[in-house]
Design a protein that fits this description.
The chain has about 200 residues and is of the alpha+beta class. Helices cover about 40% and strands about 20% of the residues. The protein contains six helices and twelve strands. Strands 5, 6, 7 and 12 form a four-stranded antiparallel beta sheet that branches. A two-stranded parallel sheet has the order 1-2. The longest helix is centred in the middle third of the chain and has 31 residues. About 30% of the residues are buried.
Length: about 200
């Protein structure tokens, strides 16, 4: 049930302000978009006519009722899009220059993979891809060694990350964070216990 219609003239004013500010990305979060994403989609489509930067809508990233987590997750996703898009584009160009034309599969923070296109559209899903891959590798080694219960430790140059594998299963959570910004996408339950 729509209480207030979307005012396209106001969106044009917003687009003008964003263009003058030369923003790199835009996040759109409407309060009840988890129930009905129509206005978010219409706002995105209207802004796309005037802006060249990536536009991320919360109903695509995290269609849930908790607006603080949804807003934070969408904002982090939007902020990462220009960086990840540039990285993936450069990776594809350099691979092509070497005669390699792969279909990139990118590890997500939950230990599964997505396409490069989806990783570019929703980079918030790949935030902890490195540690997630380490835990997935440990799980596979544990399975081959008939050890379903493991505590993993991934020590690198920046952090020491630990995870629990219990009966061959990796814990999952939606209570992640990037600095002080909550990120509520599903991810492997990995804890950073110190510097690398």
């Amino acid at each position: 049930h729509v209480v207030r219609t979307l005012k396209e003239a106001e969106l044009d004013d917003v687009a003008e302000t964003l263009m003058q500010s030369q923003v790199d990305a835009v996040a759109i979060v409407f309060l009840f978009s988890y129930l009905d994403p129509t206005h978010e989609r219409a706002a995105r489509d209207r802004l796309k006519k005037r802006l060249t930067c990536p536009i991320t809508i919360s109903s695509d990233v995290l269609p849930e009722f908790r607006e603080y987590e949804r807003t934070s997750t969408t904002a982090v996703c939007a902020a990462l899009r220009p960086v990840i898009e540039r990285y993936m584009r450069d990776l594809a160009v350099q691979a092509s220059d070497r005669g390699i034309v792969p279909e990139w599969q990118i590890m997500q923070s939950n230990g599964t993979v997505i396409s490069a296109a989806q990783a570019q559209d929703e980079p918030v899903r790949i935030l902890l891809s490195g540690p997630a891959a380490g835990v997935q590798g440990a799980k596979m080694i544990g399975k081959m060694a008939h050890c379903p219960n493991l505590i993993t430790m991934d020590l690198g140059g920046t952090s020491c990350d630990v995870a629990l594998i219990e009966e061959g299963e990796i814990g999952q959570t939606t209570a992640g964070a990037v600095g002080e910004h909550p990120v509520a996408v599903r991810m492997n339950e990995i804890h950073t216990i110190g510097a690398g």
